[in-house]
Predict the 3D structure of the following.
Amino acid sequence: MPPTEPWSPSPGMEFWDYSGSGALEEELELCASWELPYAHAFVPALYLAAFTLGLLGNCLVVRLLAGRRGPRRLADTFVLHLAAADLGLVLTLPLWAAAAALDGNWPFGPELCKLSGFALAASRCAGALLLAGLAADRYLAVARPLAARPLRSPQCARALCWGVWATALLAGLPALVSRDLQPLPGAPGSQCGERPSDALQVLGLLLLVLTCALPLGATLFCYCRLARRLRRTRRPRLGRVPRTPLRIICAVEGAFVGSWLPFATLRAVLHLARLGALPLPCLLLQALRWGLTIATCLAFGHSCANPLIYLLLDRSFRARAWRLAHGLSSVSSRSGDPSADVRGPAENGGRASTASPAQIGL
């Protein structure tokens, strides 16, 4: 494939399209770039697939948890807000898919450019902080069940989740300032990118540390301590710790780390390169272009991962989803019959489940 101008199919790639001065821009002028083969086809397809699965899956999670009667478990509160954070990202995917199909051209105006960047930053921050809160809750439930009881109340869980959202909204504000339409190199049109500024690069690097690295480090610390505690504890008073719910939570945590860590790492490298703190040869510049395209697809794909994990690993979630689908189909098929008897959970032999996608039952 012949060399082309720097290409920007994804929200992480606008980094390469600055027109300001600096060592990285001079290097780019001397370094020919090649498009990632077939990216204009597979990137939009992946984004739209993630949009479809993520919208359906996360709406299902919200419907099952928000519509549940009775007291909600603490883990349910975190999972409900996680689904809301994923929905915030999911709703931007058609915009990024269209831009990718148009070789980076952004046809939706500067307002949607800013709002899309804001949604990405806020959703990533909220997801990382909510998972850190869930990890801390699980550790306290096992290691400090009595001392942490006042902290593990529904009121505290809700206050923590709303505090997470306040932090996430603040973390997304720089995107409203820095993102705007930039000229598309070598082609007519504009792309959704960040304005060239060393101050914005420093701020972006700092936000990556505060909203990604630190929450992930806290999550890893809590689960390492939890695993150590469970290995060392054999006292009968703790009983048998259910393994399936722990496996579900570990899968959710692992999916987030595996999806977002490559993107955050490459973004940090790019911020350092833009600041001139990390000189990169032409070959590495090309590798980072391609790597960031793939890492962005992986990060966006995470928006549909959690509902799939619940469906695969949680029998209770599958049963509740099936009952919901069966109930909706029954209502639809018998909507014309005024004598139709649509039974609720209490009339189904008391089989309504009280388990949750993230329940660990401690």
About this structure: Residues 13-233+240-325 form a domain with the Rhopdopsin 7-helix transmembrane proteins fold (CATH 1.20.1070.10).
